[in-house]
Design brief:
Helix content of chain A: over 70%
Strand order of the largest sheet of chain B: 5-6-7-3-8-9
Oligomer: heterodimer
Strand content of chain B: 25-35%
Number of helices of chain B: 12
Shape of chain A: globular
Number of strands of chain B: 13
Number of strands of chain A: 0
Strand content of chain A: under 5%
Largest interface: A-B, 27 and 33 residues
Radius of gyration of chain A: 20 Å
Distance between the termini of chain B: 35 Å
Number of helices of chain A: 14
């Protein structure tokens, strides 16, 4: 079989997979709403930092800057969430991973499309936040460089993909160790601190800033957020997005390697 | 699809430790492992279109064998060939030709109607719409699921779900079916329907069926051949009829009497295995069959009689007990 035919064979089922996964994602509207409400940390941080900045700005961050930052953070967070590590862990533990292994579709593709299927639901739920943000913040604090707007979807998708690939790698550890969800929790804990979720990374001490901006968590959230807010030059943004996609490649390779080793172990031990 | 299994062995290394806190603490530093020989040097071949039951007590190695043939497990040693494929390579062409259904796991999307899972499998297995539509019509009719395929899976009963599982697994018309306890938990009517369906599907499409079950009715209704695995070893491979004759050559003769008789009158004829007021079952050597029946017809008020072999459950219990004794 030629490479083109193999790729065509891979791509062919994806529209149906997406449609069915979308139907699955909207099956529970209440669940989606609860998830939306549970992702409210940026709004709480907005209130906190708004109060801090009421008396005097923190560096170059005044109240308006904090409002813009945390509303955009909320949007990026809602669109870049991925939880595939939990799915893989559950499937390895209850044995349903066998069903995936016996289908002529690579499980990574299936997981990715099942995850992406929730995007329309997330977009619908994010829309009120976007409208509110536009009303409260105006367009003053977002980028006016059209090149950055062109780059933004790539950075946003990259944020999701990086989180997804990292979760994939963590999920694959379930083949070796049942308690991988603890690593998932640790990853999320580090994400909260080092992604810019609760504090703009710019407010870290300079020595720490130099480190945290190079870590993967910053590239999940801060990269698209700073791009949307136009906090960096286009050239700086381009470099950050480049680093983001380099991380994606690293985590994808790591996940692929772990998957291969994990499946070999599963074949040897039966899960 | 032909299956050739040659000296297949599957061994697992299992961590073991004694009970108690100290043992748990010690196991953090020093781990002890045991080797479990789940399948130990078995060989057999299965021809295209055969229906074979894998039998054995719990932990005998049936499911391990089935999973190895399906490509989920890699043999520790020996070889397995299914058609032109080595199963654990899981080539797409191989995966398009086989299916595994287990009674305890399901592939149906829980919150969506089974029809969505059928559609998803159609896309994944690249089944042309022109083939899919009549195939689904056939499956829906055979399995009697016309009125449930559009209800969310979570609202279906266990039996309804199992029927839809089978339909979903057959969307791509596999030529090799691996069935692991397919009727577990189903009521009698549903069990009968599933058994009938599997046999009909196999006969109609020439599909090979490999089945593991603890329910002997499954095996006798679906399979013509049985492979008995015990302690990872193959202890019998042949037809059900031969197994019964070999293990329990005696026949069961049941007399329905028009009036009650004394216990002595019946015991004179042979060993009584079951008795109620007017129905008596005797266990009789094959060579004594004619004599015993003739004697009964002369001495007892016989209204009706049937001659049967020993039930498969009892035959297998004997086989397993002998194997335990030999071990």
């Amino acid at each position: 079989m030629s490479a083109a035919a193999a790729i065509k064979g891979w791509l062919k089922p994806l529209p149906t997979l997406y449609k069915v996964s979308l139907a699955d994602a909207v099956a529970y509207r209440g669940q989606a709403l609860i998830w939306l409400l549970s992702t409210n940390t940026p709004l709480i941080m907005l209130l906190l930092w708004n109060a801090v900045a009421a008396e005097a700005p923190v560096g170059r961050w005044g109240q308006a800057e904090f409002r813009a930052y945390f509303l955009v953070t909320l949007i990026v967070r809602l669109l870049s969430g991925a939880w595939v590590a939990w799915e893989i862990n559950m499937e390895v533990r209850d044995g349903s991973i066998a069903g995936r292994l016996l289908k002529p579709l690579h499980p990574f593709m299936a997981y990715a499309f099942e995850n992406l299927a929730s995007w329309p639901v997330r977009l619908v739920m994010t829309a009120p936040v976007v409208v509110t943000a536009a009303y409260l913040v105006g367009t003053e604090h977002v980028t006016h460089d059209w090149r950055q707007w062109l780059l933004f979807p790539l950075a946003l998708f990259g944020g999701w993909l990086l989180q997804f690939c990292a979760m994939l790698a963590i999920g694959c550890l379930s083949f070796f160790w049942q308690s991988t969800l603890a690593i998932g929790e640790l990853w999320f804990g580090l994400y909260v601190v080092f992604s810019g979720y609760i504090i703009p990374l710019e407010l870290f001490p300079p020595w720490a800033l130099a480190i945290v901006t190079k870590l993967p968590w910053a590239h999940i959230l801060t990269t698209p957020v700073r791009l949307a807010l136009g906090l960096d030059t286009f050239e700086q943004s381009l470099l950050q997005v480049g680093e983001q996609w380099a991380y994606i490649a690293v985590f994808l390779l790591l996940a692929t390697w772990l998957w291969r080793k994990g499946v070999q172990r599963y074949e040897a031990f039966g899960g | 699809m032909n299956i050739v299994v040659d000296h297949l062995a599957k061994h697992y290394r299992v961590h073991s430790r004694a009970a108690g806190a100290m043992a748990a603490l010690r196991s953090l530093f020093v781990r002890k492992y045991d080797v479990v020989r789940a399948v130990d040097d078995i060989s057999f071949t299965i021809g295209k279109g055969e229906r074979v039951g894998f039998l054995g007590p719990n932990g005998a190695g049936k499911t391990t064998t089935l999973k190895t043939l399906a490509g989920l497990l890699k043999p520790t040693s020996g070889t397995v060939r299914v058609g032109d494929f080595t199963p654990n390579e899981r080539r797409p062409e191989f995966l398009r030709a086989v299916m595994l259904v287990t009674g305890q796991k399901n592939q149906l999307l829980w919150d969506l109607p089974p029809a969505d899972t059928f559609e998803l499998n159609r896309a994944i297995y690249d089944v042309p719409r022109a083939d899919f539509t009549p195939r689904m019509k056939e499956l829906v009719e055979l399995l009697e699921i016309g009125d449930i395929v559009k209800k969310p899976t979570r609202q279906l009963s266990l039996g309804e779900r199992m029927k839809c599982e089978l339909a979903a697994a057959l969307v791509h018309q596999p030529m090799l079916l691996f069935l692991d306890e397919p009727t577990i938990g189903l009521d009698v009517t549903m069990q009968a329907l599933v058994r009938r369906f599997i046999r009909t599907y196999s006969e109609r499409h020439g599909a090979t069926v490999l089945l593991t079950s603890h329910d002997m009715d499954d095996v006798s209704a679906i399979c013509d051949r049985v492979v008995i695995i015990n302690h990872g070893k193959l202890s019998y491979d042949g037809s059900i009829g031969e197994l019964v004759v070999k293990t329990r050559p005696e026949k069961r003769v049941t007399f329905t009497l028009s009036e009650s008789v004394s216990a002595e009158a019946v015991q004179r004829l042979g060993r009584v295995v079951k008795s109620s007021e007017r129905v008596v079952t005797l266990q009789v050597e094959q060579s004594q069959l004619k004599t015993v029946i003739a004697g009964a017809l002369q001495t007892l008020p016989v209204a009706d009689l049937t001659v049967e072999s020993a039930p498969l459950e009892e035959v297998l219990a004997d086989v397993f007990a002998r194997a335990r004794g030999a071990a």
